[in-house]
Structure formats: C-alpha cells, structure tokens
Amino acid sequence: MKTSSTLPPTPAGKHAIVYGGSMAGLLATGVLSRHFERVTLVERDRFEDGPQPRKGVPQSSQVHILLARGRNVLSEVFPGIEQELKAAGGEIMDMTESMAYYVSGLWRPQIRGGVSMSAHSRPLLEWVVRQRMRALPNVRVLDGREAAGLKTDADPTRITGVKLQAPGGGQEEVLEGDLVVDASGRGSRTPQWLEALGYPRVEETCIHVDVVYACRLYQRPPGFEPGWDSLTLSPQLPEVRRLGTIQRIENNLWQVMLGGWLGDGPSADEASFLEFARGLSQPHLYEALRNAQPVGPIHRYRFSHNQRRHYERMPRFPEGLVVIGDAFCSFNPVYGQGMTTGALQAETLGECLRRGLAGVSQRYRQCVGKLLEVPWMLATSGDLRLPEVEGKRPPVLGLLSWYGDRVQRLTCYDEEALRVFMRVMHMLESPAAMFSPRMVFKVLTSEPDTVALSRGPKPLAAVPRAQVA
Fold this sequence. Notes:
This protein is α/β, with parallel strands linked by helices. It folds into two domains: about 5-205 and about 305-380, 3-Layer(bba) Sandwich (FAD/NAD(P)-binding domain), CATH 3.50.50; about 210-305, D-Amino Acid Oxidase, Chain A, domain 2 (2-Layer Sandwich). About 30% of the residues lie in helices and about 25% in strands. The protein is built from 14 helices and 18 strands. The chain has helices at about 25-30, 70-75, 80-85, 120-135, 190-195, 270-280, 285-290, 340-355, 360-370, 375-385, 395-410, 415-425, 435-445, 450-455, and strands at about 15-20, 35-45, 90-95, 100-105, 105, 115-120, 140-145, 145-150, 160-165, 175, 180, 205-220, 230-235, 240-250, 255-260, 295-310, 320-325, 330. The longest helix is centred in the last third of the chain and has 16 residues, at about 340-355. The chain is globular. The protein starts with 12 loop residues before the first strand and ends in a 15-residue tail after the last helix.
C-alpha cells in the first residue's frame, strides 16, 4: 500500500482544516497539503520553538514507539524526515539487535532482524515533524485556538467549517473549509456535536483495563555497557501483570516506564518507583536504575480504557468531516500501536482523496473501520485475558491466547520465527504470517534448547552514582 504522497498530487478542493496538532493531525496536514490549495492546522496549545512537552500531550514523557510501518508512512509524507530526526539527536536501531527482551520466561536472541525502531522522545519527534509541516508553502498554523463547534450547511448534511475561540472562551470566529479533520484525541467532542445536529450518537466499544504507569528520565551512566540500548521485561498475562522498559533516547538519556494492569502501578515517589522495578520478573532493570542519576520528576499516568468509536457503523454521517487518530480509536498505550495506526489513517485519507472530494467522508470511515480491526483485536485480546476485565470475548480467545504464548516462546529460540513476528508486530505483514503451515508446525513441535534457556544479558551492577557526570 502506498501513501498518496508518493504519487502526483490530486486536486480535491481549496481549503482543508485540521484541528488537533497530534502526530495524526500533523501527518494528516502533510497529506492534505497535496490535495488542497490551502490547509490550516488549528491547535489549542501554543507550539514551542523546540522539542518541549506540551499540555495537550500529557503523556509525552512516556516511552513512545513509532512502528516500522508508521515510520514508512512518515517518510513518504515528509521525505528525508529520518535523516532530520538523526541530525536532531534521535537514533534508528535494529529492533532485535539493540533490545534485550524478556518474554514468556525466556530472553530473545539479540540478532540483526532487519526491522528498525526509532529511538527518540515524543517531543523531539513532534518538533521535527512540525518543522517540516511549517515549511510547506500552503500550510498555515493557528495555535492558541480551540475548536468550539462545527459549521454546517442549511440541511445540515455537510460540514462547511469549524467554530474557533481562545482556550477557555472568548469571541467566536468561523473558519470555513471544504474538509474538516478532527484530530483532537480521546476527548473529541465530535460525538456530541453530531448529536446536536440531529445525527445518531456514534456507537462506542470500551474495554476497561485501568493501566497505571510511571515514567522518568535518567542520565545513562558513563561506562555502563550492558550490551543493550533498550531493555523490556514483558508481562505474561494473566499471571504476570507488570512490565518495565528502558529506552535510550537523545542526549544519552534513558526513558524509563514501569506499569501494570488493574491499578497495579508505582506511585510517583522515588522509593515506590525503585521498589516496583525491583519487583519485576528479572533484576536487570532495577540494577540499571538503582545508582543511575534521575533527570527530572516521575510522571504518573492512568489509562482507564481502550476506546473505539464506530463511525463506520453510523447510518447517517455528514460530508466534509473526517475523524482521525485517537478521536476515532485509542488503544492501551503499552502495546505501542497508537501513533502508527494514526499514520495509517492519514495514509488512508490520502488514498480516499485520490478519488475526489465527493463522498470522501463515507469512503474514509468505511476504510478506517476495516483498518482498525486488526490492531484493535491485537490490543484487546491481550487485555481480555485478565478475568477481571469486562468485555465481549470471542469464542476462540482461549485458543488464540494459547497459540500466542507458544509463538512468543518460539521467538526466544527460533530466529526465523522472531523475524516473522517482528514484521507482524511492526505492521509490515499481516498476522496471518504467524499461521503459515511452517510456523504452525514450529509452534506445535519446537522446544527450547539449553542455549536458549541460558541466553540473556547477565545482571550487572550499575556504575556508582559518584561517577555519573
């Protein structure tokens, strides 16, 4: 599948409006700039001149992963963006070679797998992308404004613009456009606005997980060479519900996340944070942190539920409106699918616009409804393994969970299986690749050898804090 940016621009209209400067909103703006004479991005926050956290992304200090498929879309919308990220301090690493990963009671081999990952903070990623977006000659940014409602034609069967005001109130102004894109996130007010216009309330599916996680930056100690740039101690649901991750980012920092399901997460104090790390399934993360130098406070978050709004099921929906990113569907953040799924929705929007502006809202919501089926299934099937989590469980959940556990274990001692799994995880291949006859045979018959059982980084004591610059 190719994004529209790899093809000649297709004129669709004069003016498009995106409200919400999320990654999905930034990518949508880039895509729309190829189809409209003008594009306006509206954002409630004031954009800082640099990679700074912002209020509209309260979770910006947590570990973020842009999967390989999402990076491909980003590079197609903004060619050369990866080189700019590297110049700004980010790194691109081979996912399996640079990461020590503990799952299903075994360590995965650190081999060159051919699937790379981005190693940088969310603020750095957003800032570099914003710089590219601002450089587009037909894009205008209106920050410090929020969407206060939709403007419609007389029927109302078409959205013709968006009402804007300063955050918290003030005089209202109307910005008119041929297409309005809602990229405002989980708190999107589009469901209420559509209902006020006489449309049915969009159906929602929620899977409550109450994930609690805390994040902190640390200075990577000089001389500390454990053989990995990233470390993950994975949960093994439903028995093991805690996880921990260290990710190396720009400026030689570690971005650390600790968390758990159903409220089982650390508090935002140092003693609780370190005690939680010490209680993980392996000692490596705690040993890396206990003498490392913290940089800044601990940020604690709570994610209550997966949320999918089924716009594709609505019997009536206005033309001229598109919903994208977390405003359409948001996932448990520990699975790392959010930014990539938003990128794929932006790509889908470009493909729908290649057939013209007429009917684009209907085409788009149907295509995205299908697009979301796989990532939603992958995220929620993991969460639904916990008996306390309420939700409709498919009849095959037990069989799929058993098979998935066997696959995870297989990736720890079969390099071919690991490479296939990583391509599926990064959305480069369909999950069907895990069910090929060859993979099924391996899953059912293979067992780890003594080498696989003994594999993994040896626990290391961190460099004493006195040596940290």
